[in-house]
Structure formats: structure tokens, C-alpha cells
Design goal:
228 residues; mainly alpha
Amino acid sequence: MTTSDSGKDITLRIAQNPEADELLGRSPLAALVGMLLDQQVPMEWAFTGPYTLAERMGSDDLDAGRIAAYDPDAFTELFTTKPALHRYPGSMAQRVRQLCQFLVAEYDGDASAVWRDAATGDELLERLNALPGFGTQKARIFLALLGKQFGVRPKGWREAAGPYGEAGSHRSVADITGPESLAEVRAYKQEAKAAAKAAKTKTTAKTTAKTTKTARSAKKPGGLSPDK
């Protein structure tokens, strides 16, 4: 994946680390693993993970077949060795092995085959959503990443990616092209998180007020009691 479908060289700035970003740009499996690790940790940490893992395996790339066949305990140790590859290294090591086992079984170990011949965005989204550890949101974000930065653009890819596919947005890792856009994406995520928390608090307050009002009404003369 050193060149996009348009024939242009791919230069990423997601991990904010030249060596890690170079690996993401040329290795389909590294990109998938980085996306898998991108949860509950800073984005740079997640997308540097594939490079660190490859180093610890004594290689300059990741190989799905090798990972799938790796001794589970030994593979987990690669994740837990300090500095750990993730906040939850044990569970993420297991998920990476499951992903690679799936790729071996379904795509002969070739990660790029997941998207290489997808005819439409919906088809690609379905394939990504079927990957172990990839829910709908993660699948849509990776689809947007493929379209925006890797030139993988089957018909309807923006629509299939949902809001993450919008041009000019700063919603996800798909929009990170350097330190400034990273800051914008991080700010958006923080705002979205704060809005979700505020909405949850408001809903909880309404529910509590309604429950209190119902309880008071039941205590008034003529009000319904639990026995009536």
C-alpha cells in the first residue's frame, strides 16, 4: 500500500511518528491493526502499536499468518511488555490474533483483499463490519480512512461511511493529516463526549423528577397507592 489506487504515494501523519506512519502507509494489515487498537487510548498510541509490535516480532511488517499461529501467551507478552501497546494489552492481543485468524481463513491472510475488489461502499462496509473487533462505527471510520487517505473509493463510499465520509470534516482518524488536524479531531471528540454526557445528565434529571412527582402524587389524599 505504498501507493493509492490513483497511483500516488501515500504519506500518513496519523501516529505522529515517521517510522510508524511509514508502516501504516505501506502495510494494509498494520492499518487494520491500528484501527482495531483505536479505542480507549490516544489515537497516536493506537496507530503506533503496529510498528512497535512488528519491532518486537523482529520484523519490518506484520504477517497475518504468523500472528494467527503465534503462541497466545507469547503474543500477549509482546503487548504487555513495557511500554505496553495498549491500556488493555491482554484483551487487545487476543483481538489482534482473532482478526488475523479471520483474515487467514477468509482472505488467505491478505488484509488488502478486504477492500481490493469491493464494488460499492455498502459492500465494503459489510466486509469491514464482519471483521473481529470492528463494530459499525469503527468500520465506517476505517472506510472513510480508506477513501480519504488511501484512495480506495468504490461507488457510494462517502455515503456508506456516514458522517465520517464528509469532505472537510474533522470527526475521526480518517481526517488526521498532521498535528493541526489531530488537534481539531481531538477537540471534536471532546465536544461530542461532553454533549453526550450533558444529554445523559438531562435525561436522568427528567426521569428522577418524574419519579419524584409520581411518588408525591401517590401520597396525596385520593392518590393511587401501591395496593389499589
